[in-house]
Amino acid sequence: MDSSAWDERYSGAELIWTAEPNRFLVAELSDLPPGRALDLACGEGRNAVWLARRGWTVTGVDFSRNGLDKGRALAAHHDVEVEWVLADVIAHESPPRAFDLVVILYLHLVRDDFAAVLEHAVDALAPGGTLLVVGHDITNPTDGYGGPQDTSVLYGPDDVVASIGELTVEKAERVHRPVETADGTVDAIDVLVRAHARPFDEKHP
Fold first, then answer.
1. SS3 52
2. What is the pLDDT of residues 140-187, one digit of tens each?
3. What pLDDT does 203 receive?
4. CB-count burial class (<10 Å; 0-12, 13-18, 19+) for 12
5. Domain boundaries, the chain
6. Helix, strand counts (H, E) of the chain
7. Terminal CA-to-CA distance of the chain, rounded, Å?
8. What does the DSSP 8-state code read for residue 137?
9. What burial class does residue 81 get, using C-beta atoms within 10 Å of its C-beta: 0-12 exposed, 13-18 middle, 19+ buried?
10. 3-class DSSP state of 167
11. CA gap 86, 19 in Å, rounded
12. In what order do the strands lie in the sheet with 82-86?
């Protein structure tokens, strides 16, 4: 989907993804001390706003103007500041080594484009910074529930790890996410990768 399609999807008054942060973001990052954070493909801003509420200085990047407008409204509701950047994450390049945290949640692109975004994310990490990637797993169409069915835009933990260079991988796994349906609770299958850049003294002995 291009930016106009996402603008149309976000055109309604209600939030598509609710105002609550992603469960894996909360579980993985609640204990991190706040610093500078970059949320790539931030959508309606729920995760960026959650980080800002916890004291992070946050930049959210997305190519949907309507999505960012909703993010601004959500940030204003919670009385926090977020820098909202209207840009395509495939072409956008953030300042190098500038962020203590980079998050990419449920961004699904063809393999080369996704690898390029991961490369930019790694370059944006400050020494010791954390990268968190969460998305629909490539096994989800057959073994899980919901999400994109086109496997050309899906990936597994190993695909992410292969694209993040010299980062130290802390977790690279498939995780189950309960989804309530009319027929009961079913599990979606997601990818979760958490990694960190080496501290400055390790990179420059």
1. helix
2. 999 999 999 999 999 999 999 999 988 999 999 999 999 988 889 999
3. 46
4. exposed
5. 3-16+33-203
6. 8, 7
7. 45
8. B
9. exposed
10. coil
11. 20
12. 82-86, 57-62, 36-40, 99-105, 125-136, 184-196, 168-181
Q: DSSP class of residue 151?
A: G
Contacts of residue 119, Cβ cutoff 8 Å, sequence gap at least 6: 163, 165
- Are 179 and 187 contacting, i.e. CB atoms less than 8 angstroms apart? yes
pLDDT of amino acid 55: 98
Give the CATH number of domain 3-16+33-203: 3.40.50.150
Tokens of 151: 């496997």
Residues in Cβ contact with 110 at an 8 Å cutoff, skipping those fewer than 6 apart = 152, 153
Alpha-carbon distance of 197 to 129, in angstroms, equals 5
CB atoms within 10 A of CB 152: 11
Structure tokens, 116: 């390029």
Residue partners of 182: CB distance under 8 A and separation at least 6: none
Predicted confidence band of residue 8 (pLDDT cuts 50, 70, 90): low
13-37 pLDDT, tens digit per residue, is: 666 656 689 999 999 999 999 999 9
- Distance, in Å, from the CA atom of 127 to the CA atom of 121, rounded to the nearest integer, reads 13
Does residue 46 surpass a pLDDT of 80? yes
Residue 97 pLDDT > 90: yes
